[in-house]
Amino acid sequence: MLGTSPQRPSRAAVLCGVGGQLPWLKVGNDELADQLDTDDAWIRTRTGIRARHFAAPDEATSDLAVAAGRRALANSGSATVGAVIVATTTPDRTCPATAPLVAARLGLTGVAAFDVGAVCSGFVYALAAGAGLITSRVTDRVLVVGADLYTRIVDPGDRQNAVVFGDGAGAVVLRTGHDTEPGALGFFDLGSDGVHEDMITVPAGGSRLPVDPARTSHAEKHFTMRGKEVYRHAVRRMAGSARAVLEQAGLSIGEIDLFVPHQANLRILRTVATDLGLPFERCATHVQEMGNTGAASIPLALARSHVDGASGVGDRILLTGFGGGLTWGSCLLTWPSLPPAVEPSRPEEEAAP
């Protein structure tokens, strides 16, 4: 009787490069206090945020995406990919997508390029799309970027939201590999509930309510969020999605080395960690110094983890996001061996060639 052959490794997407980019203008709570009739203590108590970064007036989402993408490509050891995916809520233009421009500025003209719109869950959705392109053999390498300039859509006079959001971009490179090697992306969980589409929204500007200078109100042109309801949904959906991925993988939360959630605010992160039974010191956080950067928050956390040396090769990493739509998603991966991080350069050095 023949023995059972060992199962062969399966084709998988493997993370092989990370990079991030923040605007150079850092804005502390005290700088917002006077214009918003608030103070540092009020902001910290409700959000845990001390500072955030604001893009310059002439800076667009594509500029930060290109900078982060260039850094991730350099970290991966190759400037070539077969696809570029950009997760964003703040594209350069309503039409066309931002990804083809990002690809062209990175010297990648001719590759597949498209945007993903899943708000703050966007990076996890884009990661799933990138992994799908690799496992279905469409391409062997993908650049996945999360980039948002929320200062372009948040009313600067809105005290509830203006203190929360910042601008930034983060990126990863995926390559073809096998599911048993460090860096391999594992199980995904994705979900949505469009019944609550108006809970996090910019009401005007789409086909449902085009902007009309004579009829569109100031509030309708800006980002709105029903904070208390979002808090409840975010905690439930992020924790539930994380558990779903763990169940697929047959793992317990105690076997996770680093939890990387969407950086909504510090209260939500602490509550989700508590709900999961995860010690907070195993939760990656940068919201204190960057604010909520939307689709950029998870890849920025991965880039920061690499810079800080917070993860070792083979560590189990759990990513979880939640955003407007409503949308949510989670992913498991193991941490790869990466070259040293490429340090940020000055904005003028990131200009298009």
TrEMBL record:
<comment type="similarity">
    <text>Belongs to the thiolase-like superfamily. FabH family.</text>
</comment>
<dbReference type="InterPro" id="IPR013747">
    <property type="entry name" value="ACP_syn_III_C"/>
</dbReference>
<comment type="pathway">
    <text>Lipid metabolism; fatty acid biosynthesis.</text>
</comment>
<dbReference type="InterPro" id="IPR016039">
    <property type="entry name" value="Thiolase-like"/>
</dbReference>
<keyword id="KW-0963">Cytoplasm</keyword>
<keyword id="KW-0444">Lipid biosynthesis</keyword>
<keyword id="KW-0275">Fatty acid biosynthesis</keyword>
<dbReference type="InterPro" id="IPR004655">
    <property type="entry name" value="FabH"/>
</dbReference>
<comment type="subunit">
    <text>Homodimer.</text>
</comment>
<keyword id="KW-0012">Acyltransferase</keyword>
<feature type="active site">
    <location>
        <position position="292"/>
    </location>
</feature>
<keyword id="KW-0276">Fatty acid metabolism</keyword>
<keyword id="KW-0443">Lipid metabolism</keyword>
<feature type="region of interest" description="ACP-binding">
    <location>
        <begin position="263"/>
        <end position="267"/>
    </location>
</feature>
<dbReference type="InterPro" id="IPR013751">
    <property type="entry name" value="ACP_syn_III_N"/>
</dbReference>
<dbReference type="Pfam" id="PF08545">
    <property type="entry name" value="ACP_syn_III"/>
</dbReference>
<protein>
    <recommendedName>
        <fullName>Beta-ketoacyl-[acyl-carrier-protein] synthase III</fullName>
        <ecNumber>2.3.1.180</ecNumber>
    </recommendedName>
</protein>
<feature type="domain" description="Beta-ketoacyl-[acyl-carrier-protein] synthase III N-terminal">
    <location>
        <begin position="114"/>
        <end position="194"/>
    </location>
</feature>
<keyword id="KW-0808">Transferase</keyword>
<feature type="active site">
    <location>
        <position position="262"/>
    </location>
</feature>
<feature type="active site">
    <location>
        <position position="120"/>
    </location>
</feature>
<comment type="function">
    <text>Catalyzes the condensation reaction of fatty acid synthesis by the addition to an acyl acceptor of two carbons from malonyl-ACP. Catalyzes the first condensation reaction which initiates fatty acid synthesis and may therefore play a role in governing the total rate of fatty acid production. Possesses both acetoacetyl-ACP synthase and acetyl transacylase activities. Its substrate specificity determines the biosynthesis of branched-chain and/or straight-chain of fatty acids.</text>
</comment>
<keyword id="KW-0511">Multifunctional enzyme</keyword>
<feature type="domain" description="Beta-ketoacyl-[acyl-carrier-protein] synthase III C-terminal">
    <location>
        <begin position="246"/>
        <end position="335"/>
    </location>
</feature>
<dbReference type="Pfam" id="PF08541">
    <property type="entry name" value="ACP_syn_III_C"/>
</dbReference>
